[in-house]
Amino acid sequence: MAKTTLLGVHLAALALGVAVTGAATAAPSAATTTTTSTTTTAAAAGPDLSVTNTQAHLTQLQSIANANGGNRGTGRPGYAASVSWVKGKLDAAGWTTTVQSFSTSSGTSSNLIAEWPAGDPNHVVMLGGHLDSVANGAGINDNGSGSAGVLEAALAYAASGQTAKNRVRVAFWGAEELGLLGSKHYMSTLPTADKDRIEAYLNVDMIGSPNPGYFVYNDNPAGNGARDELTSWYASKGIPWEYIDVQGRSDHAAFRSYGIPTAGIFSGAESLKTSSQAQKWGGTAGRAFDPCYHSSCDTTSNINVTALDRGVDVIGHMLWLYAAKDFGTAPQPGGNLLQNPGFESGAVSWTGTAGPITNNSGRPARTGTWKAWLGGNGSTSTETVQQSVAIPSTATSATLSFWLRSDTAETGSTVYDTMRVQVVDGSTTSTLATYSNVGTSTTWSQKTFDVTAYRGKTATVRFLLSEDSSLQTSFVVDDTSLATS
At CA 268, angle to CA 52 and CA 175, rounded to 5? Predict the structure, then answer.
């Protein structure tokens, strides 16, 4: 799990199964919602994968670290040896593997990608987690646990005799601890047509925290289908869970930025378990979910076997479920039709005025580091950020949403500066909302609009800024979505 100024969080992308003893949330600053309620999604039966095998994988990763300076960090022999060992296991099981190398400030790193040679290549489902450790430890919970879980699920699937309806792909990312570099490199170099074939990505990172908890990603509106499968699985096992907004600080962010549905789970990192969490999950209140997070004591003795067992079972559940899922031929309900919706790939897929899509730290992004910052000039200006999207005629509904914060140097109740939210359909422009210097708020709030009327059309979503010559007003937009059902 990469650490950031807001606490790094890498959640395990497949739900855990059964109550856990606690987990460190690497992003305690993110809003969380606690619930034990069930969802309407039926939890499909999944396999009971071997925790003994999974522990054996962790023992091997520990041995690799011991033989290579005590770590498996990017650019170091321990990481290369980890990739070689995992690749050998997958090759022997019949997976088709590819090693994708790339450069980092710490030396050469690589992603290991494995694909099951069956299933429809036009419908790809992916699971993954990072294989690298930090420089000062073996990284057995972070993220040997997630890597071992994905590996065991892949090996079990190969031996199961299952017939895959969809193409299953698993990934072991490099240089995650340096800023999600491996997953970002993979997505930035993947052809657009291949990106479009990915139906969902499920991220697995830290599933064996010694004082564990059960957290489900809730930071991607486009990924709610997989999210609901995870919470449904928990509910079917009678396990309390909590939503967590990881704010893009895990490998799923590279997929989310291209509009691909993502989801994940997390057993916790350096944050402290609360009393209420200890009451429902067990473990110790006031103690970190993982006291050895990013430390040399993150060894095989830093694993809660019950949490690991439940985590690998969730991974198996999601692999079996999504390998057989019927995605049909049309875009799936809930999928985000907007590309690069969080702007994390810069201006990719968006058009309009050069400059507003930025990672300038003068105004914060809601998630990640990029956003659309419109205005803030203090001079007469007009700016646009827009994207055209085809809304399927088969959709029963279509919803446009985005997050907005704003601030101004203007005073009083006179409108000087505005940002309009528009939909352009051919020669017709409809304004859904107008925001101005009056009533600005630096607190992020989500705005939602019904755009079902545009079914069967290619419409352009536009954010239009008009600023006058006096004092500045800034409108910051992030995490956009145009979802259908």
Answer: 85
The helix (run of H) or strand (run of E) holding residue 473 is strand 473-484
Pairing state of beta strands 198-204 and 262-266? parallel
> 419 with 475: CB under 8 angstroms?
yes
- Residue 126 CA, chain-centre distance (Å), reads 12
Q: Domain 32-323 maps to which CATH number in 3.40.50.10860, 1.10.10.10, 1.20.120.1730, 3.40.630.10?
A: 3.40.630.10
Distance between CA atoms of 364 and 370, rounded to whole angstroms? 8
For 67-111, write each residue's pLDDT tens digit: 999 999 999 999 999 999 999 999 999 999 999 999 999 999 999
41's CB contacts (< 8 A; 6+ apart) are 228, 229, 231, 232
Stretch 262-274: mean pLDDT, rounded?
Answer: 93
C-alpha closest to that of 141 among 288, 319, 317:
288
CATH 2.60.120.260 residue ranges of the chain are 351-484
CATH class of the domain at 351-484: mainly beta
- More confidently predicted of 220 and 143: 143
- The whole-angstrom distance between residue 46's C-alpha and the CA centroid of its chain comes to 23
- CB-CB contact of 155 with 94 (8 Å): no
Q: 115, 176, 270, 383: which is the annotated catalytic residue? A: 176
Is 142 strand, coil or helix?
helix
Terminal alpha carbon distance of the chain:
33
Identify the three-state secondary structure at position 455.
coil
CATH 3.40.630.10 residue ranges of the chain are 32-323
Residue 51, classed as helix, strand or coil, is helix
The Cα 214–Cα 16 span in angstroms is 7
Clarify whether 177 is annotated catalytic: no
Cis peptide preceding 224, ω within 30 of 0: no
Six-digit token string for 421: 């939210």
Helices (H), 237-362: 252-256, 275-281, 305-323
Q: Which amino acid is at 73?
A: G
pTM of the prediction? 0.65
